[in-house]
Specification:
Blueprint: H1 7-31, E1 37-43, E2 48-54, E3 57-62, H2 77-92, H3 101-106
């Protein structure tokens, strides 16, 4: 037995498939919200620093390694990003964003 689909039925099926696909895409986009807290790294004269922004307004700009006695920048961009992520996570948890020497050691930051 052979099923014959006329042009009108074919068009209706195509429209429904596209509509279902569009609805799924829109639902996925609605679920994926942009994080209002954003981290970024920047190059300094002696290494790397980081910023944390809330809705595109810079809250923290850290160009030196916090908590150490020396005033030097992070040795690598990765180090700056690790600390920025830690601070961002603390802000999200609504706790003090202070970085301790223990935090730096746990993150394996070179200082």
């Amino acid at each position: 037995m052979m099923t014959i689909i006329n042009k009108k039925q074919f068009f209706q099926i195509s429209v429904w498939k596209n509509l279902v696909f569009l609805i799924l895409i829109l639902q996925l986009a609605a679920c994926v919200k942009k994080d209002p807290l954003q981290t970024a790294t920047f190059k300094t004269n002696s290494g790397w620093g980081y910023t944390i922004a809330y809705k595109d307004k810079i809250l923290i700009k850290q160009s030196i390694i916090p908590v150490i006695n020396d005033t030097k920048s992070f040795a690598t961009e990765d180090d700056a990003l690790k600390v920025a992520t830690l601070v961002k996570d603390k802000l999200k948890q609504k706790i003090s964003p202070t970085v301790t020497e223990k935090d730096l050691i746990l993150l394996k930051i070179k200082f």
